Amino acid sequence: MEKILKRCFRLFGVWQEDKEMEWLRQMSLKGWHLTNACIFIYTFEKGESKDIVYYGDFKSIKKTDIDEYLDIFKDAGWKYICRQGNWFYFSSPADNKYKEVYSDNQSRLGKYRMLLLIHIIIMPMLFNSLRIVSNRMANNETILMGTLMLFTFVLLFAAIYSTIRLIVLVAKLRKSPKE
Amino acid sequence: MNEKAELRKLMPLTETSFYVLISLLEPLHGYGIMQKVEKLSNGRIIFGPGTLYGAINNLQSIGLIALYGDTTSNERKKTYLVTDKGRELINLEIERLKEMVKNAKTLIENTKSNI
């Protein structure tokens, strides 16, 4: 039988983990199971309705360590779906004992700290691109340059907003007396 | 002595790190650690895979645990074992935890008799 696929475009911020995962779970309940996630485009395959939970983990990992990382998830009942850069997507039956991928605040914090660090590294690059684009635009006002300028602006704004949300999230996790 | 001061900088260990460390007094791989800790804590502690992977990585990088055995063997999964440094730290943690329990017990019993 031919596979029935569906692609959806959805924007989720890195701080919206819960919202994204709940949406994926709802899709599975409707019989659409995630097969790929690639920069805001989610691909689903039609199947039976199942209660499946999802997790997108952010991990900067050495090539030689990937097998071990994936093995631990597999042993804990998590199926590896796809990888997009440093994002790894997994799924698991909702009744899995190990359905909390991060079972303590400390390790959850580790994930967000890493994301925050990446944002902080990217920020000066975006500022720099904006500077370059605006310099070019001064001598060369074309629609292409205008679009590029707008695009860089949007990216920079998104990065700033995302950074603020991540800082708030990290602060909240740090405040908890729970480990 | 210097070494002890060095180890004290790592204290207190989180519950996760502590349990991973003591479970590795015998060689185990990732899933083995999860199962052992669950058993030791009577099901109270269930490690998520993300948490466990992070803890193993972290403990290995600071030299409290190390890869165990022949990595060229057929066994694909990596096995770990606590190092001498890790053992030393467990002993220091035992002292710290003893002190905590002793103080809490004494104080809570004292206040109970006051009421």
Would you kindly provide a written description of the structure presented here, covering whatever features stand out?
The complex is a heterodimer of chains A (179) and B (115). Chain A has four helices and six strands; from the N terminus they run βαβββαββαα. Chain A has helices spanning 17-29, 66-75, 105-139, 143-175, and strands spanning 5-9, 32-38, 41-46, 52-58, 79-84, 87-93. In chain A, the strands form two sheets. Chain A has a three-stranded antiparallel β-sheet. In chain A, 20% of the residues are buried. The mean pLDDT of chain A is 91. By secondary structure, chain B is mostly helical. Chain B has one domain (13-113): Winged helix-like DNA-binding domain superfamily/Winged helix DNA-binding domain (Arc Repressor Mutant, subunit A, Orthogonal Bundle). Chain B is 62% helix and 5% strand. Chain B has helices at residues 2-8, 15-23, 30-40, 49-61, 84-114; strands at residues 65-67, 80-82. Chain B has a two-stranded antiparallel sheet with strand order 1-2. The longest helix of chain B is centred in the last third of the chain and has 31 residues, at 84-114. The radius of gyration of chain B is 17 Å and the shape is globular.
Defining traits:
heterodimer, A: 179 residues, alpha+beta, three-stranded antiparallel β-sheet, 51% helix, B: 115 residues, mainly alpha, Arc Repressor Mutant, subunit A, two-stranded antiparallel ribbon, 5% strand, globular
List the helices and strands and how they pair.
The complex is a heterodimer of chains A (179) and B (115).
Chain A: E1 5-9, H1 17-29, E2 32-38, E3 41-46, E4 52-58, H2 66-75, E5 79-84, E6 87-93, H3 105-139, H4 143-175
Antiparallel strand pairs in A: 1-3, 2-3, 4-6, 5-6
Helix pairs in contact in A: 3-4
Chain B: H1 2-8, H2 15-23, H3 30-40, H4 49-61, E1 65-67, E2 80-82, H5 84-114
Helix pairs in contact in B: 2-4
